[in-house]
Amino acid sequence: MEFRPILSTLRRHKTASALIVMEIALSCAIICNALFLIGERVDRVGGSSGLAESELVRVQMAGIGKDDNAAALTASDLATLRALPGVRNAIVTNEVPFVNSSWNSSVTYTKDQSQPTLSSTVYMGTEQFVETLGLKLVAGRNFTSDELVDWAAIDAPNSKVAIPSTIITRSMANKLFPDGNALGRSFYSWGDEPIRIVGIVEHLVRPSDQGGPVAHDYSMILPVKVPYTVGGNYLIRVTDPTRRDEVLKAVVEALKRNGPDRIILTDNTKSMEALRSEYYRQDRSMMWLLIAVCIALLVVTALGIVGLASFWVQQRTKQIGIRRALGATRGQILRYFQAENFLLATVGIVIGMLMAYGINQLLMGKYELPRLPAMYLPVGAVTLWLLGQLAVLGPARRAAAVPPAIATRSV
After folding, report:
1. Residue 227's Cα: distance from chain center in Å?
2. pLDDT for residue 411
């Protein structure tokens, strides 16, 4: 295909050509970044939490006034819950995943380190914690009973009680010790004494987004026996997920009978899957909004290409007829308009890629988003090339179908 006649024609229609180029460039820039943001949201919503979500339910309660016997009542609650039909295990913990608040602590290699290495969320639980949540222990061991520390001892004024051990996530272990030898090593976080890593779990999602996407899996579990008054979170793992709602009702009734002077927070009492669904509701809405924006941009761009191509076909009817009379085939006419559109789309895509990079730099500075991966640029380019060829196909076929006799009647 000879591009010189195409360039000559486009120079005579500079304004229309520039408009379609800018339309394609803007679409390319926005679509590349929108696809990237959609991908980020998909990864976030579909990311692994490390939990046996389908088997977990959460009951949150609050005491009425001060309960001096909270630890004993908590132990009684757990014994009652674990004896219920359909309950595999039950624990009390200070926080749960998929809520908008969390316990966080800075982590350092040494006691006097000026800047923390990272910030981790802090889960507290007994040796039942890992099994109840369904966490996968990939290295080391679980807590032993002699490592457990009572919350009252830690919470006492001027307490010097040390946390002897911890279980952390693999991502946190890799961040702290990139050499891969985290097991058995120590760090400083909770108190003045080093905490030794005895186990590593594959995943345990943070309750909130503090720290951004990179830190969403920085979690540690401390062997602390907390009463229900610290967070009020009971997590129950059921034996049969299909009977989850039935078990949840039985759990609520059992807790009411065991301690009537407490309030069940019904809005926060639900399955882990329901908590996750509500937590990511805005992300799903954002995904659909961005998808709608992409579709709208593609439709507008396609209509612009169709409109401009149709206008040019109408303007060039005599020119097309002359070319047909001189022996040009329908296929050559069709390829001419497709090549013309391909050239305009290519210029627009090149400009659009530069604009996409600029928009990404702006988003990185304003919203702490990661850099746009290079793979999204060719995806956007191919999408717009294909769209351009499909959009111009109709007008190009009409041009190719112009009879030479009709087109040259006035020549």
Report:
1. 33
2. 45
Summarize pLDDT for 62-77 with one digit per residue, the tens: 877 676 788 999 999 9
CB 224 within 8 A of CB 125: yes
Tally the C-alpha atoms within 13 A of residue 30's C-alpha that lie toward its C-beta: 16
**pLDDT tens digits, 272-286:** 999 999 999 998 999
Buried b (16+ CB within 10 A) or exposed e, 90-116: bbbbbbbbbbeebbbbebbeeeeeeee
pLDDT interval class at 203 (50, 70, 90)? very high
Residue 344's pLDDT is what?
Answer: 84
314 and 227 co-located in one domain = no
Angle, CA 30 vertex, CA 293 and CA 377 arms, to 5°? 125
> In 83-187, which ranges are continuous DSSP H helix?
129-133, 151-155, 170-176
With a cut of 80, say whether residue 60 has pLDDT above it.
yes
Q: Which residues contact 42 (CB under 8 A, 6 or more apart)?
A: 287
Question: How many angstroms separate the CA atoms of 201 and 120, rounded?
Answer: 14
User: For residue 308, is pLDDT > 90?
Assistant: no
From 222, 219, 177, 178, select the one nearest 202 (Cα to Cα): 219
171 and 293, same structural domain? no
DSSP state of 108: B
Please list, in sequence order, all residues whose beta carbon lies within 8 angstroms of the beta carbon of residue 319, skipping any fewer than 6 positions away. Answer: none
Domain boundary among 279, 313, 347: 279
Residue 122 has pLDDT above 70, yes or no: yes
Strand partners, 140: 199
* pLDDT tens-digit map of 5-36: 666 666 666 777 788 888 888 888 888 888 88
CA-nearest of 110, 107, 92, 103 to 148 is 92
Q: Mean pLDDT in the chain?
A: 85
Of 132, 47, 147, nearest to 96 (Cα)? 132
pTM (2 decimals)?
0.79
Q: Which residues contact residue 302 at a Cβ distance below 8 angstroms, ignoring those fewer than 6 apart? A: 387, 390, 391
Q: Which residues contact 52 (CB under 8 A, 6 or more apart)?
A: 133, 134, 237
Structural domain boundaries enclosing 292? 4-46+282-407
Judge if 266 and 135 occupy the same domain.
yes
Three-state SS at 85:
coil
Asked whether the CA dihedral 256, 258, 263, 268 is positive or negative, the reply is negative
Last residue of a domain, one of 256, 279, 302: 279
